[in-house]
Amino acid sequence: MPIVIEKLTYTYQSGSVNAFTALHEIDLTINDGEFVGLIGHTGSGKSTLIQQLNGLMQPTSGIVKVDGYDMSDKKQRAKGRALVGMVFQYPDYQLFDETVYKDISFGPKNMKLDAEEVDRRVREAMRLVGLDFDEFAEKSPFELSGGEKRRTALAGIIAMYPKYLVLDEPMAGLDPAGRRAVLKMIDDFRKQLGCAVVMVSHSMDDIAKTADKVVVLRDGKIYTSGTPEEIFSRADELYEMGLEPPFAARLASELKRRGFVLPDGIYTNAALADALDAYKGGLGNV
Amino acid sequence: MFKDLTLGQYFPVDSVVHRLDPRTKLVLLIMYIVAVFIVKDIWVFGLVIGFMLFMTAMSKVPLSYVLKAIKPMRVLLPLMFLLNLFMINSGDVIFSWKFITITTGGVRQALFIVLRLIALVTGASLLTLTTTPVSLTEGLERLLSPLKIIKFPAHELAMMMTIALRFIPTLLEEADKIMKAQLARGADLESGNIFKRAKAMLPILIPLFVNSFRRAEELALAMESRCYHGGEGRTRLKVLKFHMRDLWAFLIMAGLLAAVIILQNTLQIDSWMVSLLRPLWEKAA
Asked: What pLDDT is stored for residue B77 in this prediction?
């Protein structure tokens, strides 16, 4: 069963003079196992939207249903929340326990699993995020490096085996090697655990590599959504919205402006290289 | 979760009271508190209340805002009133039934304590309503600076207050984020007995503290890299100046104090009212 969002509207401080509508009649479905990339510039409502997915905020009007559990209802919310794992932007908001092991086991313990199952899951999660058990299990989370902290925070959520994994800019502040590693990790869990992933990111290159579906938010509304081909073929439009389309899409659009005849829907480096190869071949035939 | 919370209750309008020097306002508040405490005659207290209302009118802050300060005391005030009413036995007995005795002294004391508390709280809140936290700490620093002779760290104290005030909203926002992160991991903050709940707060308090220490260190570095080295030789962008209006404010306040002292020593309205009303309860008894 999917996450279904219907006509979701959310207003901060509703009823007061400072009332601000952050989300406006959002309709969105997140299917099982799907990788959804959520893009939009600062203040477009991305963070508000993902917090609705596991009931940390409740809609002012409209419905959010996680596998049929209505997130506006207090009892159903607890059940729905257990299905949605949420990783915040900064691991510092989440790490608290004496050791990495204890910190990762916080979530599974809250799920009232028995000790053996908790242990198994912690080991599995650490393996998935690439933290060596013997080296890190007994370390304090506060003496880790930035990248290791982020892995620990991710493992803390992975160990809960969420059906839907929600990530708020999981790569923010990491160096290119770290970004690649985290992105690969996320893709790996999805394959191994079969979970759906909702990822907020400013980097469209990252989303272009992995997403099945791209949703573009603008001023609290869904501006457009579709497959990466559909969205990134409109590179110029995204650029005007203050977003940075994938490098290959921008280059393809610049080449077309200069008279190159290229197919639509190029957004990865490989596809662009293929198209240019074909072009070269085509010219050679003339 | 904390979005609706407003901190520092500064009410931004332009008025004479707002424009007063913060030092003047601080000293006036102290004088006002002295006035509230030296009043012994309940009728003269009207004068103090009148002054309070006058200042509120001058400040252009709606009276309802000033009175909001009483709200947190809505349990304390009636309790104080009743306790004083029943516990104090002095003067004439007005009413007596089994173990309950109400005397003129009790009524007087009960009214007094409530009025004093209200006068104190509203006076203090008028200060914070009309003065920004920044100028308030600046005023405090300047008032305390003569104490530097005896090595009192006036500047450091004011700087600490400014920093603390500055970071309250930041900390609240951060606490909100941490709480959400832990709720998302299935933390249960609401059920269980008090010990269980206190223990459930740990996953929120620890990251909050760790982040605060890190932030303090970063702030110290940022201040040092801009050559901050304490208050020595530091000048201000806005220099506080003593204006005519400050002098007037002092004169009015001095007038109030003088009036209070003279009136309650010459007119003894209090005992005069008691003797006037005495036939009422004597008839009832």
From this structure: 92
